[in-house]
Amino acid sequence: MSDHQADKAQRLADKLLPEINEFKHSRKTLQLATRNSEGQPNASYSPYALSENGFYILVSDLARHGQNLKMSEQVSVMLVEDESEAKTVFARKRLTFDTTAQRLERDTDAFKEGVLALQQKHGEMVTNLAALGDFNLYRLRPEQGLYVKGFGQAFKLSGAELLDVSWMTDGHHGEAKDPEVTEKVSA
What we know:
Strand content: 35-45%
Number of helices: 4
CATH topology: Pnp Oxidase, Chain A
Structural class: alpha+beta
Order of helices and strands: HEEEEHEEHHEEE
Oligomer: single chain
Number of domains: 1
CATH class: Mainly Beta
Shape: globular
CATH superfamily: Electron Transport, Fmn-binding Protein, Chain A
C-alpha cells in the first residue's frame, strides 16, 4: 500500500471508528446467533456491557442460547439501530461481529469485572441475576466485524483490535475497495 493509500485508509478509520464506538455504546442489547450440538441455529438477544476485553452477557442455562453457549464457543452478534430511529427499515445501521464466547468462573477478577460493567450499564437487577446459580457470565471477544451504515456503505473491521477499516465492494462478503475511493464515504 502506498503512503497515499495508507493516508486515505487512515482518514477513513479516523472518520468511522468514533461513529462505530458511539454506536456500540448507545445500544443496550445485542442479537445472538448460537447453535446447538446438532448445528441447529437459534436467534435470541441479551443485554450486554462493553469493555476493552469484549462484550459481557449474563445468560441463564434455562434459555436455549444458554445451553448453546455451552456447546459452541462460536457466536455471531449484532447490534442494530432501532426501527424508530432508522431512515428506512431496509437499511438499518448495524454492527456485526464473529466472536468467541468464554464462560467466566465465579469468584474470579474477570467475573467481577464483567458483572460490574453490566451493573453500571443496566443497574441492580444484574446483581440479583448474577447471584442465581443458573446464570453464567460470558465474555464475547470479537474476531472480525462488519459495520453497515446504509445502502452501499459496508465496512469490514479487522486487525488486532478491529481498528482497520475497509470499505466493502461486493455486498457484505466482497473485497475491500481500493483506499483511493474510500474518501468519498459520507458521514
